[in-house]
Amino acid sequence: MNPPPKKSGARGLYILLAVVGGGALLVAIGIGIVFWRIWSDPEGRAKLGQVGEALRVASKAQSAPGTKELRKLGCGQALVMDMEDIAKIAVGTDASAEMKDEMPFGEMIMCAGQALGTPPSCADVVQTYVKAVGTRPRNVLVTVTRGGSGGEVCSSVYDGKGNFVSDGKDGYRTGPPIYMPEGDEPDPSE
Fold first, then answer.
1. Strands 140-145 and 152-158, sheet pairing
2. CA–CA distance, 51 with 39 (Å, rounded to integer)
3. Could you give the CA distance from residue 84 to residue 96 in angstroms, rounded to a whole number?
4. What pTM value is reported for the model?
5. What does the alpha-carbon distance between residue 63 and residue 88 come to, in Å, rounded to a whole number?
6. Percent of the chain that is helix, strand, coil (3-state, to 5)
7. In the structure, what pLDDT confidence band is assigned to residue 174 with cuts at 50, 70 and 90?
8. What does the DSSP 8-state code read for residue 187?
9. How far apart are CA 156 and CA 164, in angstroms?
10. Tens digit of pLDDT for each residue in 121-162?
11. How far is CA 27 from CA 14, 18, 31, 32, 40, in A?
12. pLDDT at position 176, please?
């Protein structure tokens, strides 16, 4: 008598692939329906536009002029954000042009120090930045954090030549709140 034919695992593999493929198809259909509903709603479209704009601003900030020099200085992550771009995300394109004169600074530099080692000072960051890109037309806010463990090292406002103006904790909060709708101002006693 001949032994029974050896069963191959191919049939079980086909069943598994069909189940996984069917599940993936259902997930894709679900995601498609969610995006269709968001896209068909004008408010949803606007929110997706804000997300896209935020990604564009973040990408621009990572490769902005001066970031290469800041990384050489000791910033593991260096971002230079144009505050007009941030205002476009927060309040929309039309309103950001009107707010330009109200903003107490034109650029925000964020430096996260290397995971190991001492992070640079705010003064070193602004001096390196101004040396790399030239005098700025408006004040600059500089924030330095420790790499790895986090924690703020310093936050200060400088003029366009790199001269100290004020402590960033108070200096950039002077004047009217920039990104808050009327009535949502924070309580100054807090």
1. antiparallel
2. 13
3. 6
4. 0.62
5. 19
6. 50, 15, 35
7. very low
8. P
9. 7
10. 999 999 999 999 999 999 999 999 887 666 788 889 999 999
11. 20, 14, 6, 8, 20
12. 33
